[in-house]
Amino acid sequence: MFVLVNLKTYPCDPVAVADAVRDVDESTDARLAVAPQAADLARVAETGVETWAQHVDPIEHGSNTGHTLAESVADAGAVGTLINHSERRLKLADIDGSVRAAERAGLETVVCANNPEQIGAAAALGPDAVAVEPPELIGTGTPVSQADPDIVEDAVEAADNVDSEVSVLCGAGISTGDDVVAAGDLGAEGVLLASGVAKADDPQAALEDLVDPL
Ligand SMILES: O=C(CO)COP(=O)(O)O
C-alpha cells in the first residue's frame, strides 16, 4: 500500500513530520511519502523522505507570476505531485495541462476527484494514479473506507474501465491501520491522508499505527 501524507497548510513542523515518515517507511513494506507546501519541498526532500508536491500548474517556463512550475518542484526534490485536490480544484483542461507538465518534469501524478464519475474522467487523462476523496468526509476523522465503501469500489471499477494501468487511492478521514486495511480490501492501492498525521500530537506514533497491520 502507498500511504501519502498531505500536510496541506497545517501548522505542523514539515521537517519533523518528514523525519517521522522516513523513519516509519524504513520499518515497513508499505510505501510512505509526504506532500508539504511548495515552500517547504526542498528542506523536506533533504530529509531523504519520498517527497510530493501538493499541486503544479499547467504552465512552462515563462511569464507566469505566482504559479508553481513542475520543473521547479522536481528540482526541489519532489518525485510526484497531487493534482486537482479538493482544496485546489482545477478546470478539466488545466488538470490535463498539469498532468502533462508533471510528466514533462518526470513527476509521478495522482489526480484527485470527488466521486467515481470524476475518477473515470481523471483516469482518461493518463495519470499514474487517481484518488477518490469525498469532500464531505475530508478532515472529519470518519474514514471513507468505512463510511462510504461503495464510493471506493465504484472508483476502482470506474478507473479500471477506462485504463487498468491507473492505480486508485482513496482518502478522507483515514487515520488508523484498520482504515488502511479496509481501503485495500475495497481495491485501493493506497491512501491519501492529512489530519490523522499532520494534526496528531505524535505524528510518528500515528504513522506507526497506520502501517502496523500492513
Ligand atoms: O484531503 C485529504 C488528503 O489529501 C484527506 O484529509 P484528512 O485525512 O484530514 O481527512
Give your account of this protein's structure.
With 214 residues, the chain is α/β, with parallel strands linked by helices. It has helices spanning 14-25, 41-45, 70-75, 92-104, 116-123, 144-147, 149-162, 177-185, 195-198, 203-211; strands at residues 2-6, 31-35, 52-53, 80-83, 108-113, 129-132, 167-171, 190-193. The chain has a single domain, classed as TIM Barrel (Alpha-Beta Barrel), CATH 3.20.20. Helix 5 runs parallel beside helix 7. The longest helix has 14 residues, at 149-162. The chain starts with a strand and ends with a helix. Involved in the gluconeogenesis. Catalyzes stereospecifically the conversion of dihydroxyacetone phosphate (DHAP) to D-glyceraldehyde-3-phosphate (G3P). Pathway: Carbohydrate biosynthesis; gluconeogenesis; Carbohydrate degradation; glycolysis; D-glyceraldehyde 3-phosphate from glycerone phosphate: step 1/1. It holds the Pfam family TIM.
Characteristic key phrases:
single chain, 214 residues, alpha/beta, TIM Barrel, eight-stranded parallel β-sheet, 39% helix, globular, binds 1,3-dihydroxyacetonephosphate
Q: How does the SSE layout of this entry go?
A:
Layout: E1 2-6, H1 14-25, E2 31-35, H2 41-45, E3 52-53, H3 70-75, E4 80-83, H4 92-104, E5 108-113, H5 116-123, E6 129-132, H6 144-147, H7 149-162, E7 167-171, H8 177-185, E8 190-193, H9 195-198, H10 203-211
Parallel strand pairs: 1-2, 1-8, 3-4, 4-5, 5-6, 6-7, 7-8
Helix pairs in contact: 1-10, 5-7, 8-10
Bound molecules: 1,3-dihydroxyacetonephosphate (13P).
1,3-dihydroxyacetonephosphate is lined by residues 6, 85, 133, 138-139, 171-174, 192-196.
Keywords: Cytoplasm, Gluconeogenesis, Glycolysis, Isomerase
Main location: cytoplasm
GO molecular function: triose-phosphate isomerase activity
